[in-house]
Amino acid sequence: MRRPSRAALVCATAAGAAATLLGAGAGPASATTYPPPRITLQCPTADGEALHGTVCGLPSGMTTAPNSYAATVAVAKAGAAGATVTFAVTAGSLPPGLTLGAQTTGSGTAVTGNPTKAGTYDFTVKATDGGLTSTLAYQITVTVQGPPDQLQCTAAAGSFLIDGACVLPDAVLGQAYPGRLPTSHQAGGTLAVVAGSLPPGLSLPAAFGSAGAVFDGTPTAQGIEPTYSFTVQGTGDQGQPLYQAYQITVDQNLPLAIVLPSSGSTLTSGTVGQTFGQNFFLSGGAGPYSWSVVAGALPPGLTLRTFAAPTDADDELAGTPTAAGTYTFTMQLADYAGRQTTQQFTLSIEP
């Protein structure tokens, strides 16, 4: 007599639930459980990754060479997940210079490239396999390796530092101002005036290039105090903060002149072997100024000393004379606006 065969009993399940097959064939009944198909973005720690709450911290990068970057966005597949998984950034953004691989047939994709701007970047990745999806938040920190970008004072002609403030060349009423604010990296960035004010008629661009931030405009007024103080804040080419205090003095476009403490062109005499000093002053024009001897000769042992910053005197003839005689020479004074004036002097050195 033929023994009836045992039929397989299949249990239909809702999507995502485990499927169970109950016994088949002539043997005893058995149950086999199959996991539902799924994909899961993971944050392994083997490659320097770390899970902070619900955010996966990928390894940090740097902006300066060698700055090649590579990190893994891992995905695990289970059940009947397909062979190919695609990836996309659905929120936030990667650091500039980095890209995310679009798809993989393996266990993940890579973030690669050369980061160009410092900062902390948060973004969300979505992995897709047919109708299966998984999302995870990530974070990458990019740092600057080497000297940071800075606003430089003395790199601009005619500028100097006093008590942390950068004193820029004077501006002249009614004349275009050629000043600029350079940076140490000589690259682009953004900035804004966050305290104080520029002289009326002058402005600074919100973004600048390799030449630095170049002033635009012509001073139109001089206040009760002719010196304007302001502070600039911005971001350098690699994301570094920029900050510097500045001063600009607006001149009234008065004639340039050399002035002595006493009238006349004959200077107080000196003596061979004795220390000598004679101050010169100026009026009008626009600083910074330059002094020079353009005719004749100074007494041997004396030199012109020009001060880099404002002092009680604008220039000084100083030294120890080494030869007696009467010396006639012509001094020239030039200002930042290109104006010049000259004056002849006579100095006697006694034996």
From TrEMBL:
It comes from Actinospica durhamensis. This is Ig domain-containing protein. One of its GO terms (cellular component) is membrane. It holds the Pfam family He_PIG. Residues 1-31 form the signal peptide. Coiled coil: none annotated. Keywords: Signal. One of its GO terms (biological process) is carbohydrate metabolic process. It comes from the Bacteria. One of its GO terms (molecular function) is calcium ion binding.
